[in-house]
Amino acid sequence: MLRTTTLLALLLLSACRPRTADRRASAGETWQGPIVAITDSMLDAGGSDTVRFGRLRSGEIAVQRLRIVNRTQRTTAIASYDRSCGCTTLEFDPQPLAPGAGRQVEVIFDSRGESGWQFKRLDIRLAGAQAPLRLFVEADVR
Question: Domains in the chain: how many in total?
Fold first, then answer.
């Protein structure tokens, strides 16, 4: 009975580990920021995630670095992006992203001329994808 209880406790602990434990960018390298994983279903049907900037001062230009990881069996690349507002920008490397590889991108939010709660959209077009990866940008400008 004790062995079963111990095994169950270990299984529960391993299932409840924080997301930050799976942040390896590549062999020997650790990534400390947000990760957006590209999956086969995302390439076929699109996907979404949210980039939260939190509270910003009016006029502040904020940068959020995140890592895009290709978890498919095919090579892809960021081909282009569309945005709902000129206040958001995506800086990226257009080089192909091999299966299993990851790359840093920067989401930039310029709060000049903005106030209050902001909710913007970036549609990232991936090579070979049927639908875009949609990133929502959220900030509270004071």
Answer: 1
27 inside domain: no
For residue 25 the two structure tokens come to 């960018």
Percent of the chain with pLDDT over 70: 80
- Whole-angstrom distance, CA of residue 90 vs CA of residue 96: 17
**For the residues 16-32, what does the mean pLDDT come to?**
47
Residue whose pair of structure tokens reads 């086969």 in the numeric block: 40
Query: Is residue 63 a contact partner of residue 140, using CB atoms and an 8 Å limit?
Result: no
Query: In this structure, is residue 12 part of a structural domain?
Result: no
Reduced to 3 states, what is the DSSP secondary structure of residue 19?
Answer: helix
Distance (Å, rounded) from C-alpha 111 to C-alpha 56? 8
pTM (whole model) above 0.70: yes
Question: 């095919």: which residue's tokens?
Answer: 74
Please, is 51 exposed, middle or buried when counting C-beta atoms within 10 Å of its C-beta (0-12, 13-18, 19+)? buried
**Contact (Cβ atoms closer than 8 angstroms) between residue 21 and residue 29:** no
Task: Provide CB contacts within 8 A for 30, sequence distance 6+.
Answer: 23, 24
Cβ atoms within 10 Å of 89's Cβ, excluding its own: 17
Say if residue 125's pLDDT is above 50: yes
